[in-house]
Design brief:
With 256 residues, the chain is α/β, with parallel strands linked by helices. 49% of the residues lie in helices and 18% in strands. It has eight helices and eight strands; from the N terminus they run αααααβαβββββαββα. α2 (23-44) packs antiparallel against α3, α4 runs antiparallel to α5 (113-127) and α4 (81-108) crosses α6. Mean pLDDT is 89; it is low at 1-11.
Length: 256
């Protein structure tokens, strides 16, 4: 279904370009087809295979929205905000699952039971925030990127000093309906996650091509117990870390 969805989306987009109709009519037809495909998927039930097929079809028609500026067809008035949000949600979920599969292939394969349990806890924790994730982006060093390509998932690239070829990261922009309120970067091969507020100077957003892993880590500060104002900070996966993470996220987003 993945190949069929990609093919149909690309072919229909090409037919609309060549058809004897205006660019506005072609954009309207593509938008209507995408809107119908998303509605059909929701109505039929969102199985992984069905969602992937519809994503391939819709992205083939409208372009991939995971860029700093969405492709123009995503702005067509025929496409509802609910459809945009649904596609973003599906892509975020796909990216989320891909990160942990990449970690499994590059870090955990052949690993000890304790390490696997620790990563299962990380996955379970971040899964609870998926409804509040506005954007998700996979970041990989070269070997990890090979695994991402096997999953047919796009990713940015880790660069800079002390980057191992198996390194990977999951960047999540988390917030409420009023907008995103914090970015979290969970990374393999390190016992801490980095958080930063919107507009924090020198820190990247989602969908960048490259991320300087060492620079991001160096900017993160350790918080004192009552610190609620530091814009860039790191939290370690030690002790009752899920409760600690949850409290810090709630302080900055209001999400409980």
């Amino acid at each position: 279904m993945q190949v069929i969805g990609t093919f149909l989306g690309a072919q229909l987009g090409e037919v609309l370009k060549q058809a004897d109709c205006s660019a506005q009519e072609g954009d309207a037809a593509a938008a209507a087809a995408a809107e119908a495909a998303v509605a059909w998927c929701i109505g039929m039930g969102e199985s992984d295979e069905r969602v992937q097929g519809v994503l391939d079809f819709v992205l083939g028609l409208l372009g991939d929205p995971r860029t700093r500026t969405r492709p123009p067809r995503w702005s067509h008035p025929t496409i509802s905000e609910a459809t945009r949000q649904q596609v973003d949600s599906w892509l975020s979920r796909q990216t989320f699952e891909a990160f942990f599969r990449v970690v499994d292939a590059t870090l955990l394969r052949g690993g000890d039971v304790e390490t696997r349990q620790k990563w299962a806890a990380r996955k379970a924790f971040w899964r609870t925030y998926l409804p509040q994730v506005r954007k998700a982006w996979l970041i990989c060093a070269p070997n990890a990127a090979l695994e991402a390509r096997k999953l047919r998932v796009r990713c940015g690239q880790f660069v800079g000093q002390n980057v191992l070829t198996d390194h990977s990261g999951l960047l999540l922009e988390i917030g409420t309906s009023a907008g995103y309120a914090i970015t979290a970067l969970e990374m393999s091969h390190v016992g801490r996650a980095v958080f930063w507020a919107p507009g924090a100077p020198g820190l990247p957003g989602a969908f960048e091509r490259q991320y300087d892993r060492g620079d991001i880590l160096s900017r993160a500060k350790t918080l004192s117990r009552d610190d609620r104002t530091t814009k860039v900070f790191a939290l370690t996966h030690q002790g009752n870390w899920p409760e600690h993470f949850r409290r810090r996220i709630a302080e900055r987003t209001g999400i409980q």
